Amino acid sequence: MNTAAMAEEFTTPKRAILTKEDLDRFHNSEAYDKILGFILRLNDSVKGQTLRTESSKSSVVLSLIGLLEELDSWVKGIPPTDDSKSRFGNPAFQAWYDKLNKNAPTLLADLLPSHAIPEVSAYLINSVGNRKRIDYGTGHELHFMAFLLCFEHLGLISAADYPALTLNVFWRYVSLMRSLQFAYWLEPAGSHGVWGLDDYHFLPFMFGASQLANHKYIRPKAIHDPDIIEEFSKDYMYLACIKFINSIKTASLRWHSPMLDDISGVKTWSKISEGMVKMYKAEVLGKLPIMQHFLFGSIIPFEPSGEMPNVDEDDCGHGHAHVVGVHGVAGVQANSFGQEFPACCGIRVPSAIAAAAGREAEGARVVRRPLPFD
């Protein structure tokens, strides 16, 4: 155990970003460097490695995997309510979420010093989705990264654990989230849909591109080859995500996932890997509607510029303030590649998983625009 961490005063994490000015300060802060640096170290650790690569697993890593398996097992005991006519989030998710909220301290009791549990557990709880809206997106995924970062801060994991954290712990977390998405039809938070990489996740694509960065044979255009996807989706996160998308959406990537289709035209995975990092900085860490939700405490410190309003129960249910200039008059905002997507507030987007389950075709034709990946 890190002796410094034992003496540290921990706090309950709170939001601290409200305005564009706050976000700019965050980008020049210790917290930003800490979060991004940790993610990039995980990203670098899996270059050339597959999901089936045997990596050493410390007792903490094994415990984290066991924790995620325990959370996954709860889904069977909390079945979705009978609401087959709705493609939106199923309210049974709230019971599952409440169980995690209640039991998180107990689940972490053997992993963490007791005085750190309230702070660290907040990141775990906020990594599984929004209770009120029954949705999930890249901001929740970022909270899971923060959850793992806390373990490094406490001296419970080290650089030697990075490959296992990424290929085993994080990938098990993605599996848990897929279970929740299938069981409770979580809505895509932020309504990115076809304007993003995936309705829910970003990091599996980033880590997956890093895995493939130096591959001798598989090229980016291979995502359109069903045989390669079938054979290698067991080894690479990126290809596994393509397989998942193909399993729940109709037509081709060109129409329902134009960004992924465009990226497949890049010549090398190393270029895609570099582009993914730039895109993550811009599309997740650089987006105010996402970062307004992020929680800061003693481990990831960042102070608000003024008093934060109570935004936990706002009208849109997203728990953030509406700032002039963030959401346009027409209710849309543009991403860093010039593409426009619906604002996250006031627009409910049904789960594509629910659509697939209901045998309903999804996807409208969208304008394809080039991405700066080469």
TrEMBL record:
<dbReference type="GO" id="GO:0008160">
    <property type="term" value="F:protein tyrosine phosphatase activator activity"/>
</dbReference>
<dbReference type="GO" id="GO:0007052">
    <property type="term" value="P:mitotic spindle organization"/>
</dbReference>
<dbReference type="GO" id="GO:0000159">
    <property type="term" value="C:protein phosphatase type 2A complex"/>
</dbReference>
<comment type="function">
    <text>PPIases accelerate the folding of proteins. It catalyzes the cis-trans isomerization of proline imidic peptide bonds in oligopeptides.</text>
</comment>
<dbReference type="InterPro" id="IPR043170">
    <property type="entry name" value="PTPA_C_lid"/>
</dbReference>
<dbReference type="InterPro" id="IPR037218">
    <property type="entry name" value="PTPA_sf"/>
</dbReference>
<keyword id="KW-0963">Cytoplasm</keyword>
<dbReference type="InterPro" id="IPR004327">
    <property type="entry name" value="Phstyr_phstse_ac"/>
</dbReference>
<dbReference type="GO" id="GO:0005634">
    <property type="term" value="C:nucleus"/>
</dbReference>
<comment type="similarity">
    <text>Belongs to the PTPA-type PPIase family.</text>
</comment>
<protein>
    <recommendedName>
        <fullName>Serine/threonine-protein phosphatase 2A activator</fullName>
        <ecNumber>5.2.1.8</ecNumber>
    </recommendedName>
</protein>
<dbReference type="GO" id="GO:0005737">
    <property type="term" value="C:cytoplasm"/>
</dbReference>
<dbReference type="Pfam" id="PF03095">
    <property type="entry name" value="PTPA"/>
</dbReference>
<keyword id="KW-0697">Rotamase</keyword>
<keyword id="KW-0413">Isomerase</keyword>
<dbReference type="GO" id="GO:0003755">
    <property type="term" value="F:peptidyl-prolyl cis-trans isomerase activity"/>
</dbReference>
